[in-house]
Design goal:
alpha+beta; Rossmann fold; D-amino Acid Aminotransferase, Chain A, domain 1; Dna Ligase, domain 1; 3 domains; 6-stranded antiparallel beta sheet; 4-stranded antiparallel beta sheet
Length: 311
């Protein structure tokens, strides 16, 4: 039982994005933890039931366990704002900004946060000019949809002949594609937790069994290894935590986030993106980092819930 009185908490999970199945797993874990903590829980799938049940349940807070479009992009946050309900995670504006990788990277640039060089290719470009623009980044490069999560539609391009197909795949998922210089190094992530005084969790190194941290690596047990602390220098670890807090602040995140980065062999750190609703499944990164800090899963869920109630 938590130190706060038992509350009525609605858990939003599922949804209609490409990350629906992951969200169902996150939501189930969250709901189970909240019940163990003594809260009254109602589970709602907006794609199946809409949000009408929220009015009848009248929760003290809404725990958003949605991922991807219509969950992580500000849409559901706007609906909850209009209903006058408190919710976990970032605001409408912050959610929308973080979901759009091109806007995020522009804000990183403006804030002096190092992020790999990139260009933006749109469906409005004709194929030849799109290809020329993308080639300007150089090979190898990473091509990904601007507003998708969980590596949906992403390609690592090692030869210029593969670039056109990579652009097509990304633009099938979104109106814009981000073409980013490929940085060789150690892939790490840093969780940020807290509303009034956000704290950076330990730096976690991701070692995928596949070529990169793709969908299978993220969500299949045994397909990636999480190493805490990351096998980088102490100075690089401190820099990762510093930049995670800066990126969290630059995008006006609140409550919690997870910042993905690449660390070059000599220690230079590059910020890739910020996830405002990182996964909370049994193989997710944020819970692993929290455990390394001595925060058990149920305690983490209670901390995240309480950020929704802080002014």
């Amino acid at each position: 039982m938590s130190d706060r009185a038992s509350m009525k908490v609605a858990v939003l999970m599922g949804g209609s994005s490409s990350e629906r199945e992951v969200s169902l797993k996150s939501g189930a874990q969250v709901a189970a933890a909240l019940r163990r903590l003594g809260h009254e829980v109602m589970v709602i799938d907006p794609a199946a039931n809409g949000l009408n049940a929220l009015s009848d349940f009248n929760p003290d807070a809404v725990f958003i366990a949605l991922h991807g479009r219509f969950g992580e992009d500000g849409c559901i946050q706007g609906a909850l704002e209009m209903m006058g309900l408190r919710y976990t995670g970032s605001s409408v504006l912050s959610s929308a900004i973080a979901m759009d990788k091109t806007i995020s990277k522009a804000l990183f640039d403006m804030s002096g946060i190092p992020t790999p060089p990139y260009v933006v290719v749109s469906r409005r470009h004709d194929p030849r000019s799109a290809l020329e623009l993308a080639l300007g980044v150089g090979i190898p490069c990473v091509v990904k949809p601007s507003s998708q999560g969980s590596t949906v539609g992403i390609s690592i391009v090692k030869e210029s002949s593969a670039l056109e197909e990579a652009l097509k795949i990304a633009l099938d998922h979104d109106e814009e594609a981000l073409v980013e210089k490929f940085i060789q190094g150690t892939e790490v992530t840093v969780g940020v937790v807290g509303k009034r005084d956000p704290q950076a969790l330990p730096v976690l190194e991701i070692v995928p069994k596949n070529e990169f941290y793709d969908w299978e690596s993220k969500y299949t047990p045994g397909m990636s290894e999480h190493i805490i602390p990351a096998r980088i220098s102490e100075a690089a670890q401190e820099e990762c935590q510093r930049l995670a807090l800066r990126a969290h602040a630059a995008l006006k995140c609140r409550g919690y986030s997870r910042v993905d980065m690449i660390v070059e062999p000599e220690g230079r750190v590059w910020v890739l993106e910020v996830n405002t609703l990182p996964g909370l499944t049994e193989v997710s990164l944020l819970p692993d980092a929290a455990r390394a800090e001595g925060i058990a899963f149920d305690e983490l869920i209670e901390i995240l819930l309480n950020t929704a109630l802080e002014d």
